[in-house]
Amino acid sequence: MYKIKLSKDAKPYALSLPRRVPIPLLGKVKEELQRMVTLGVIAPIDEPTEWCAGIVVVLKPNGTIRICVDLTHLNDYVCRERLILPAVDETLAKLSGATLFSKLDATAGFWQVPLHPESVPLTTFITPFGRYCFHRLPFGISSAPEHFQKRLSQMLTGLEGTVCHADDILVFGTSREQHDHRLSKVLERLQQEGLTLNKDKCEFAVDRVKFLGHIVSAQGLEPDPSKIKAITDMPTPTDIAGVRRYLGMVNYVGKFSPRIAELSQPIRELLKADSDWAWGSMQQRAFEELRRELSSPTILAQYSPNRATKVAADASSFGLGGVLSQKQLSGEWRPVAFISRSMTEAECRYAQIEKEALALTWACERFQSYLIGMDFLIQTDHKPLISLLGSRALDDLPPRILRFRLRLLRFTYKIEHVPGKNLITADALSRAPIRAPLLPEEKQLEKDVGAYVNQVVEHLPASEGRLAQIRTAQDTDSVCNRLKNLVQNGWPDQRKALTPELQLYWQYRQDLLLADGLLMKGDRLVIPVSMQVEMLNKVHEGHQGITKCIARAQQSIWWPGLSKQIKQKVGNCAICAKEAHNFPEPLMTTQLPDRPWQRVGADLFQWNSAMYLVVVDYFSRYIEVANLTSTTSAFVMEKLKAIFSRHGVAKVLVTDGGPQFVSAEFADFARVRLPTCD
User: How many CA atoms lie within 13 A of 296 on its CB side?
Assistant: First the structure.
């Protein structure tokens, strides 16, 4: 029994007069109402009700009518169960290996579900013959399909070889004996549950069956011939609206042919915002070729979780394409599904290697219902992706590639390189992608990748002004300009095809990318020649030695030979050479104090030609820094007094024995102020 639940803000809606019904149909309407009363689906109602809907009469091809109750206003307030109906592809994937099928159809399925007495008045509707209300679940309620699907699924729980979708039940088996056994169990269960079947619509023990818009057989999946005929019989489009209607129907068979996207490309060009309507010879030729292609669509193999599986994907400059294939018992690889889509404006600006990684990530995520939980093979014609999406350490990946790799971590795969000539199908799909709105998960992928790359740029140790300066310098540098073009459109197959200055970047090509107009190597800015001397001086500032200077550079900047130039600069620096012989004392462990400000350390340091005093609490690691206009003991003591006045006098003060801390003046200060001074 089903009870309709309404939201608290529900506002009743009631018609006081019936909608007009064509006079020739009045007799049939009266007969249909009486039939529904006899079946116990509806009953006349005389008492007042807050809700009352109108009806719409639909004439069927066989001359009978269907009475549709317009429950639109009621549906605005119905609380949905939000049961997610299984995806068609997921349902069809369960039919792997089946050779015999029986399709069962529930007679007026919704009408077999009793309606709760409290919900009956809500379904009141008015006709020329009076008011009626439903005692069975009406077809017009928005929550009806999901409730019936839930009820049907519960009925079939525990029964093998069955799938249900809406009011259709499919029973299947790999042999006659298995099929008949499963069918017997299903019929027995339905009888126990009191579900009535429509024998005229049921099919028993057939080797081909129409289910969910497909023809299912032991050979695989085919598109419904009636849908193919509807497409091939369509007239030539005469306007943009006609093109959209035509392509919308063509998209239905997109997964059955790797050539649909390619053949329909001239027609899709008419949908571009800057395109004028002009149905020319190219469009007409494409229209006729599509008709021929659709007359014999590919039979897709049935998916099986026990067969070797591979995903091939490719990216052109504006589209993505992918193919899911499985190895059959004969040893032949057959396609299970084809996919393609156009790239967004943001994706079109990716480096070519990033587009290839996007294609593989997108294909795996689109096919995830087939792939998660199994080992499979990824094929790509872009050799650098073998390491980038395979064995390379995560902390050594460019930002976008890292994001794609992280999204692939939930899959268990091996990746191999295949020459482009052997990846024809995926390549063709990517070069003629289907233009359709992105799915929610595809939007999320683009959003995640964009957000991560933006975060990398925002956290570079450079101001907006500095980044703008570097961007301008890159734009005016001929090498950087050519690099940007190579990154976005792809590199040649061989290093020798590049000019000498670009050959320096060949071995790093898989790490170069564009982010917010900046040329980067991973998360480091590529510095043009005009700024390299300046950046080298910045890195060397502070005379910290080779190791620390290189580490500092690795945080934000890069160009070929940077580390070598740093070594040369430090090696030729007199100050660095002098400091290199002052070997530091080995570090010593110190016992952690019991409380804050019990033991503190003090030292002097120089930064940007200014001197500072730093005081560190050993317990909390809290730091105080004071600027020193003089480095005498007297001035240092004044700064220490100010710090101690804020935090209290330390029990122990640790210094390095510098001249400021070993003078007689400081010794007197320590005896008066400090219990211990090391």
Answer: 2
pLDDT per residue over 17-37, tens digit each? 998 888 888 999 999 999 999
Residue 547: partners with Cβ closer than 8 Å, 6 or more residues away: none
Q: Which CATH superfamily is domain 309-452 in?
A: Ribonuclease H-like superfamily/Ribonuclease H (3.30.420.10)
At 598 the three-state DSSP class reads: coil
For tokens 């008949």, name the residue.
180
pTM of the predicted model over 0.85: no
Q: Which residues of the chain have pLDDT under 70?
A: 61, 82-86, 166, 252, 254, 258-259, 261-262, 420-461, 579-585, 675-678
Closest alpha carbon to 670 in 656, 657, 652: 652
Of 39, 38, 40, 68, which is closest to residue 54 (Cα–Cα)?
68
Closest CA to 189 of 207, 210, 169: 169
CB 322 within 8 A of CB 339: yes
DSSP 54-99: EEEEEE-TTS-EEEEEE-HHHHTTB------PPPHHHHHHTTTT--
pLDDT tens by residue, 390-430: 888 777 788 788 888 888 888 888 999 887 666 544 554 45
In angstroms, the CA 96 to CA 496 distance is: 50
15: which 2 tokens?
């018609």
What is the CATH T-level fold of the domain 460-579, as seen in this structure?
A: Endonuclease III; domain 1 (1.10.340)
Contacts of 540 by beta carbon, 8 Å cutoff, 6+ apart:
549, 566, 569, 570, 573
Residue with tokens 């005229």: 200
Gap between the Cα atoms of 610 and 329, Å rounded: 78
Handedness of CA 507, 510, 512, 517 (dihedral sign): positive
Burial class (CB in 10 A: 0-12, 13-18, 19+), 471: middle
